[in-house]
Amino acid sequence: MALLESGEMYLETIYVLSLKSNSVRAIDIGEHMGFSKPSVSRAMGLLISDGYISRDEEGYIKLTKSGEKIAKRIYERHTVLSKLLMDIGVDEKTATEDACRVEHYISEKTFNAIKAHIKK
Fold first, then answer.
1. 9 Cβ partners below 8 Å, 6+ apart?
2. Is the model's pLDDT at 12 over the cut of 70?
3. What is the CATH number of domain 70-119?
4. Angle, vertex CA 28, rays to CA 81 and CA 91, nearest 5
5. Residue 37 pLDDT more than 90?
6. Mean pLDDT rounded to a whole number for the chain
């Protein structure tokens, strides 16, 4: 099943939280994203059933290989696009918010061109 933007956001959040701590729980995800416990619980169930995450008996959430691949791709897009926007004069708050929206829709071809341009 195709992953929607919201699913990508959850995976990216789990990835970011896992960079800071080995123990990520649904409550951490909800606090980070500002979502309610029922919303996070439903999303976690869908991500588990689609094979993007796993949850152990203690409730800790881990990305599967396929989930981590998507999360890293989205996170890279977010960081590169945020930096690009700030480099051209956009304030950090606006740049990160705009990057968060664009990261899900920009084509691979365009994103790769942006990365190549930045490296020059």
1. 33, 74, 100, 104
2. yes
3. 1.10.60.10
4. 30
5. yes
6. 94
